[in-house]
Amino acid sequence: MTIYNFSAGPAVLPKPVLETAQSEMLDYKGSGMSVMELSHRSSWFQAIIDDAENLLRDLMKIPENYQVLFLQGGASLQFTKIPLNFAQNKKALYVNTGSWSKKAIQAAEALDNVTVEVIASSEDQNFTYIPEIPANVDQDAAYVHITTNNTIEGTAYQSIPNFGKVPVVADMSSNILANDYNVEDFGVIYAGAQKNIGPAGLTVVIIRDDLLGESDISAPMLDYTLLAKNDSLYNTPPTYAIYVAKLVFEWLQEQGGVAGITAQDQAKSKLLYDAIEASELFKSPVRADSRSLTNIPFVTGNDELDKKFNQEALAYGFENLKGHRSVGGMRASLYNAFPVEGVNELVTFMEKFEAENGGK
Ligand SMILES: *Cc1c(COP(=O)(O)O)cnc(C)c1O
């Protein structure tokens, strides 16, 4: 039985990447050691982290005046670090588009000396769309925080709104490297690696230089300036996760870079969205103009049928297709490494299920 992993994260990795990791597992390039055993201060590891950074800069066309950091703590720790580093005694703007945005807002609100203003929200309709951004946002705000892709709800910005001169801070955890974004549209980009980059444990943070102030955060590990000054090696970074990320970046280059993989992602998601549109049984809970390329929820509208579908899907070899508990139904996460064959099989499976369960 072929297993297809539809997980929202940790998610499927490219098979050639896993094969390379396997072949290099016991002896990394003649070092006689596994990557896991290399000192993070060794020239072996320095070459790995340098390659990872250069590959990511190349893939995303990251300009020289941005720092690329390989950190830990997940996207969730950045929820606190971002207001701590950029908005003390200032106002920070947030757009509330889902569960992860909400957590980012709550983390900022928990800091005494940060003023949080939510400038737009789609909570009124269970986060099933991307809200309009008001025309005149406060131009003195430290930043405006957006979640480019809402992993749980399956919505995504189709373009980055214009916020004037306010730096845009983007949680890109679930669609980094799946969209041809212009890095210069952002002040900060951050992403937990376990969706579209590599294994869990690594968090990529990209920061425009002028946003990094003096080191004046009392907790060193929360201070982006200090972490940047030490080139992500203030403490032991997640070395093996950085190595696998490097292999993923190499694989992405072979796919034609971000433009190449985005074209593949568009083709994959179209297969599934077209099948949902054509179906009388399955529906997308997301407004048509707000749909995500990478996380695609769908429902029958009947909890019992959803449950039956999920049971049969699991038996067929579709792992982690069950929707998030806050949305229900099903959710297919079609990240970069998810193979198109799996989408074709899912569509065939859905048609068969519909025919057997009173649909057309
Ligand atoms: C998964 C996810 C998070 C949480 O990431 P952690 O690395 O587990 O902290 C935050 N934001 C978005 C958009 C996500 O998809």
From TrEMBL:
Location relative to the cell: Cytoplasm
Segments passing through the bilayer: none
UniProt remark on cofactor binding: Binds 1 pyridoxal phosphate per subunit.
Residues found modified as N6-(pyridoxal phosphate)lysine: K195
UniProt entry tagged with the keyword Plastid: no
Enzyme Commission number: 2.6.1.52
Keywords, alphabetical: Amino-acid biosynthesis, Aminotransferase, Cytoplasm, Pyridoxal phosphate, Serine biosynthesis, Transferase
Cofactor(s) of this protein: pyridoxal 5'-phosphate
Pathway membership: Amino-acid biosynthesis; L-serine biosynthesis; L-serine from 3-phospho-D-glycerate: step 2/3
Domain of life of the source: Bacteria
Binding site for L-glutamate: R41
GO molecular function: O-phospho-L-serine:2-oxoglutarate aminotransferase activity
Domain Aminotransferase class V as annotated: residue spans: 3-346
Amino acids binding pyridoxal 5'-phosphate: A75, S76, W100, T151, D171, Q194, N235, T236
Enzymatic reactions: 4-(phosphooxy)-L-threonine + 2-oxoglutarate = (R)-3-hydroxy-2-oxo-4-phosphooxybutanoate + L-glutamate; O-phospho-L-serine + 2-oxoglutarate = 3-phosphooxypyruvate + L-glutamate
Quaternary structure, from the entry: Homodimer.
UniProt function note: Catalyzes the reversible conversion of 3-phosphohydroxypyruvate to phosphoserine and of 3-hydroxy-2-oxo-4-phosphonooxybutanoate to phosphohydroxythreonine.
Family (UniProt): Belongs to the class-V pyridoxal-phosphate-dependent aminotransferase family. SerC subfamily.
Protein name: Phosphoserine aminotransferase
Gene that encodes it: serC
